[in-house]
Amino acid sequence: MEIVKTAIEFFFSTALFINALLFIPQTYRIIKEKTEKGVSLVTFCGFFLINLAIVLHAMVRADYVLLAGYIFSLITCGSVVLAILFYRFFRKSNAVNVTLEDVLDQIPGHVYWKDRVGVCLGSSRNNYEDFGLKNLNEFVGKTDYDLFSAEEADKLKLIDEEVMRTGETKVLEESLKNSSGEAVIYLSSKSPLKNSKGDIVGVIGVSMNITEAKQAVHEQLNMLEEIIAVMPGNVYWMDKQGVYLGANDNEARSIGLHSRKEIVGKRNVDIKNFVIPEALDPVNEKVLSSGKPVTAEEPAILKDGNQAVFLSSKVPLYNQKNEIIGLVGVSFDITQRKQQEQELLRAKEVAEIASKVKSEFIQNMEHDIRTPFVGVYGVVDLLARKESDPEKKELLEEATLCAKELLEYCDGILEFSRVESESLPLTSKSFDLHKLINSVLNIEILTARKKTLDLLLEYNETLPKIIMGDVFRLKRVLLNLVSNAIKFTKSGSVKLHVELERSEVSARQCIVRFNVSDTGIGIPEDKKNLIFERFSRLSPSNKGLYKGLGLGLSIVKRFVEDMGGDIHVESAMGEGSQFVILLPFKLPLSDDIIDAE
Ligand code: ADP
Predict the structure, then answer these.
(1) Is the pLDDT of residue 117 over 90?
(2) Is this prediction's pTM over 0.85?
(3) Contacts of 121 (CB under 8 A, 6+ apart)
(4) Among 43, 152, 402, 548, whose Cα sits 20 to 30 Å from the Cα of 497?
(5) Is the CB of 412 under 6 A from ligand 1?
(6) Does position 591 have pLDDT exceeding 60, yes or no?
(7) Is the CB of 407 under 6 A from ligand 1?
(8) Closest ligand 1 atom, CA of 522?
(9) DSSP sequence for 104-128
(10) CA 562 to CA 473: how far, in whole Å?
(11) CA 550–ligand 1 middle distance (angstroms)
(12) What DSSP character marks residue 217?
């Protein structure tokens, strides 16, 4: 009986000891994983209290073997309870307490792992919920054939097998249907799943749903496609071998294609009914070999068979490594413009011939008309002087006057013709500006007096005394403007105002402003520019009011521009006109001598 009791006590003591030992790995696990998750505080408190009760019982009964065993068990169980309490209450406040399960529950994207035959072993919550499954248990044990269509599962299986065979990670885009039957695009990365020994035991994958991002890219691409399709001009691009990779609608239409996609794969020689490969290929070759943009006129054949000319601009296309991989070109049909250009060229040639003929005619006028006329004028003038019969003398004097006027008219035309045909060299001589102005006014003073007009000069004394420029042109310009002002003014005054507009001494340059104003008939607003045209007169000679050829201002404008200046007119009808000229002159060095008076 005693033996049996001892045996039972030994058995229970051993069990108690083993039980106490089992609490040690539990404590170790909690401390190692730094979390009390998965361990029940209630259970261990229960164990602890039972142990405590038995310890107390053993103390009362003085059963020391039982007491020792349960104290040991009490300590090990207490360490579990303490560890739980520590991680639950003390570590909670300052540590992020996240388990692997938590991570898998929340991980964005889909994580899953399968064994070698494709049986699912686990996955993130995201993943199994996407298949309409409520918990992981429902997912584990399934294969791709349970989750996808047979066709999709076949494809997935092939990929898994490849990953396991090569042992390498594979990144790919997968187009699959989700549980609601919607097409979803995933970016997946699949790697071999290895055990602790490094043996491949399955596949682990991570897939991200990129459907929205793909759609956005797709929309952008569509828009680009649309833009290219409707681009003006003919747009096309080709690879290094001269094979077309794409084109816009215009290009497709002009080479007789129904869709721009049809150009892909063609070469110039394949569309030689519309292009001339012998002309195009060398240009393309130049762009591809030089890497530089080329702009060239290229011949082409239109759909109706007519010849056309395109202005093409081609640039090389580069890849990421900066290597030329092809070219892109834009061509515009300039056939019409070319025709117009040629017509203009022909018209210009005709106009030049006409102008030459006219110049020759005018130059011949000197010989054929003026010379004999000078004779007639001389003889009539002589006869008028010698004639004693007053009646005949008066008639002859009238004839002399008419002949003189005609001669002046001839001279005006001849002079203009000379100025127009002989380009007078621009001179630069130093001269006294004040003296030159006075000489101009002296010539005109008599005419002004005859018309009882005041001829006034306002000369600003800040003007440099000596300046350098084309004296001949300046004098001619001022004479013309002053004589016009007198001619077109009945009463009042004609004034020449001269002042310094600007002076840049360092650049030895100054700009002088000349204002020729009158109180005459004025010029209508809409005719202000017309008066500078050749043979343009606002009051034609047939009205008999003012004599003239309408050539003076055209010469004035030309001379002013020759000198690098500017002229414009301000006027009000019936109130007078003011011609404003701004002319640049050089300032001579102090020791420059005066070349012209
Ligand atoms: P012309 O004086 O020989 O007719 P211009 O070329 O010098 O030729 O002038 C062209 C026209 O400009 C003149 O016929 C006249 O109608 C107008 N014109 C020129 N100067 C004046 C002016 N000071 N006042 C009014 N009209 C003017």
Answers:
(1) yes
(2) no
(3) 113, 114, 115, 140, 202
(4) 548
(5) no
(6) no
(7) no
(8) 25
(9) HHH-SSEEEEEETTS-EEEE-HHHH
(10) 9
(11) 7
(12) H
